Amino acid sequence: TDRMWDQAKQQVKELKEDELRTVIKDIQFESAEVDEIWQESGQDWITVHFIVHMIDHLCDIHGNVVEGDSDNSVQIEEYWTFIRPSGSPDPNWKLSAIQQPGEVARN
């Protein structure tokens, strides 16, 4: 969605200003399960619960790790919600929200 795109652009802008970059690699999916499906206000909604293991860290412009671990994977658990117009022939869904377990939804 436009809101998710704007959030991603803002995060990239902030990282560039701080001369940092995010490194995510060696992603391994432990599970991806449909958590919820519904229709609301002319939209189809689906939430998928992901558990993944990956290496995730921040580096400065010289490649030095400033946050996270460049050698060991971490487990990430998130709920991703996607939307599309109900009855749309377009098979593509748009990302609407990403939540951590226990977070309140903000659509």
Can you give a write-up of this model?
It is a single chain. This protein is 15% helix and 57% strand. The protein has 107 residues and is mainly beta. Strands 1, 2, 3, 4 and 5 form a five-stranded antiparallel sheet that branches. A hairpin with a 4-residue loop joins strand 2 and strand 3 (65-68). The termini are close together.
Largest sheet: 5 strands, antiparallel
Low-pLDDT segments: none
SSE run: HEEEEE
- Residue fraction in strands: over 45%
The N- and C-terminal alpha carbons lie at a distance of: 10 Å
Topology:
Layout: H1 2-17, E1 20-40, E2 43-60, E3 65-68, E4 74-85, E5 94-99
Antiparallel strand pairs: 1-2, 2-3, 2-4, 4-5
Q: What features would you highlight for this structure?
A:
mainly beta, five-stranded antiparallel sheet, 1 helix, 15% helix, 107 residues, globular
Q: Quick gist of this model?
A:
With 107 residues, the chain is mainly beta. 15% of the residues lie in helices and 57% in strands.
